[in-house]
């Protein structure tokens, strides 16, 4: 029989990766709370049309990357390719647009896209994101950027993080810009890739962030030169608020989002250590999305961070989260079972500030040799041997598996001794 393997483009998150994820998730949760967000957990699958409406059916995501399936009732569903659509759906479904004029929600979890797997890109990947509804003020945009910065900083990612910020206008000023850009690109149609030609009518802005074509059009008209007065004032205030905080960012006039419901502020976060993909997150204002999904006109701003990518960036700059110290209790001989078992529980219930050790007990049905092998395989730092002969004297053997020293000590002292030693090495 062949052993089973994880599906292509997926992997198990283990060891340092899972500890890095947990660190980031913990820091993010604390920051979100500090900024007034509540956690929401939406389903990992939704109606397929939610995403074609919310993400846009001219995007790569909807055109070719969604995991689509039908349930047994023939309903078309999709594994979520991103988190915002589900949160907006929940916002409307719970009637928060009526009951909570301002609502801030955050989420974390796996997303699914059938992309070509490569370094740092997975078909199941993890995101943490936040969506703030109901606040049209430039302060909400600036606050969102600061929140992202605080999440990254508190999780330990400080070196080389860049925030690229732009405004992509609104329904008043963008149509004229779109026409100007379309005219410019149409003249250069022969230089465009297949995708950009196909999108030229509905989504010309995407050519600016097309990897192949974007860099060719250095003279392309920019949104910054076409903003209406209201958008210009909004952008200027976002920038003033950020500069007053202070917060370091780069104005990035070629940064775009291809979809109509994005308005005004857009941003991208990058960090070294990603190989060809240095984006670790993105966000912006999307005042048009709630209405697009059937709700009232509702201003909103949000972002998502790629957990896999932030974790890579953290590890690239030397982040290490050591596992807890490990104590293994081995047992051998008649009458040792109860003592070994209660010792494990005593150690586990010993409340102490700082990081608690992990405690494992060998299988009482196995030989001492097999238990020692289990202790090694588990990576134990200490081993307590509860043996029949020693126990008759009220003693156990304490082995330090790192220094390979061992001694016989009274059973009543073992908890104190272990916790003191661990306190010293932590
Ligand atoms: Zn405008
Ligand atoms: Zn292109």
What does this molecule look like?
There is one protein chain. Helix content is 37%, strand content 21%. With 426 residues, it is α+β, with helices and mostly antiparallel strands. It folds into two domains: 15-173 and 227-316, BirA Bifunctional Protein, domain 2 (2-Layer Sandwich), CATH 3.30.930.10; 326-425, Anticodon-binding domain (Rossmann fold, 3-Layer(aba) Sandwich). It has an eight-stranded mixed β-sheet, sandwiched between helices. It has a five-stranded mixed β-sheet with strand order 13-12-14-15-16, sandwiched between helices. Helix 12 (337-349) links the parallel strand 12 and strand 13. Helix 1 (15-34) packs antiparallel against helix 6 (138-155) and helix 6 (138-155) runs parallel beside helix 9. The mean pLDDT is 92. The site of one zinc ion (ZN) has 8 residues, from helix 8.
In short:
This protein has 426 residues and is α+β, with helices and mostly antiparallel strands. It has helices at 15-34, 48-54, 60-65, 84-93, 96-99, 138-155, 174-187, 194-199, 229-244, 289-292, 307-316, 337-349, 368-378, 388-392, 414-425, and strands at 38-39, 45-47, 68-70, 76-79, 103-112, 124-133, 162-167, 250-251, 265-270, 279-285, 300-306, 326-332, 358-361, 382-387, 395-400, 405-410.
């Amino acid at each position: 029989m062949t052993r089973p393997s994880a599906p292509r483009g997926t992997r198990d998150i283990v060891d340092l990766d899972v500890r890095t994820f947990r660190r980031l998730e913990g820091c993010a949760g604390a920051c979100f709370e500090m900024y007034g967000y509540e956690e929401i957990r939406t389903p990992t699958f939704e109606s397929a049309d939610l995403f074609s409406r919310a993400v846009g059916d001219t995007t790569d995501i909807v055109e070719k990357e969604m995991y689509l399936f039908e349930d047994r009732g023939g309903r078309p569903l999709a594994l979520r390719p991103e988190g915002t659509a589900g949160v907006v759906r929940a916002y409307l479904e719970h009637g928060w647009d009526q009951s909570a004029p301002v609502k801030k929600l955050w989420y974390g979890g796996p997303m699914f896209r059938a992309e070509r797997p490569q370094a740092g890109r997975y078909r199941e990947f993890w995101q943490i994101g936040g969506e703030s509804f109901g606040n049209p003020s430039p302060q909400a945009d600036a606050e969102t950027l600061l929140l992202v910065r605080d999440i990254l900083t508190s999780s330990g990612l400080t070196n080389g993080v860049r925030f690229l910020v732009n405004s992509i206008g609104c329904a008043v000023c963008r149509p004229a810009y779109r026409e100007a850009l379309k005219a410019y690109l149409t003249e250069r149609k022969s230089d465009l890739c297949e995708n950009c030609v196909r999108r030229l009518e509905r989504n010309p802005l995407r050519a600016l962030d097309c990897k192949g074509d974007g860099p060719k059009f250095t003279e392309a008209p920019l949104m910054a030169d076409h903003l209406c007065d209201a958008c210009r004032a909004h952008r200027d205030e976002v920038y003033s608020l950020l500069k007053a905080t202070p917060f370091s960012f780069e104005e990035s006039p070629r940064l775009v989002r291809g979809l109509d419901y994005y308005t005004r502020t857009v941003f991208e976060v990058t960090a070294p250590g990603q190989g060809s993909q240095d984006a670790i997150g993105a966000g912006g204002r999307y005042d048009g999305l709630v209405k697009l999904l059937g709700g009232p006109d509702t201003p909103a701003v949000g972002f998502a961070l790629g957990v896999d990518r932030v974790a890579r960036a953290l590890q690239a700059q030397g982040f290490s989260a050591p596992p807890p110290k490990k104590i293994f209790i081995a047992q051998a001989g008649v009458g040792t079972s109860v003592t070994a078992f209660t010792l494990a529980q005593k150690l586990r219930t010993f409340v102490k500030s700082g990081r608690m050790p992990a405690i494992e007990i060998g299988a009482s049905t196995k030989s001492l040799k097999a238990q020692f092998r289990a202790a090694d395989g588990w990576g134990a730092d200490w081993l307590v041997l509860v043996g029949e002969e020693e126990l008759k004297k009220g003693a156990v053997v304490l082995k330090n598996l790192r220094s390979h020293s061992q001694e016989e000590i009274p059973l009543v002292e073992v908890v104190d001794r272990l916790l003191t030693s661990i306190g010293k090495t932590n």
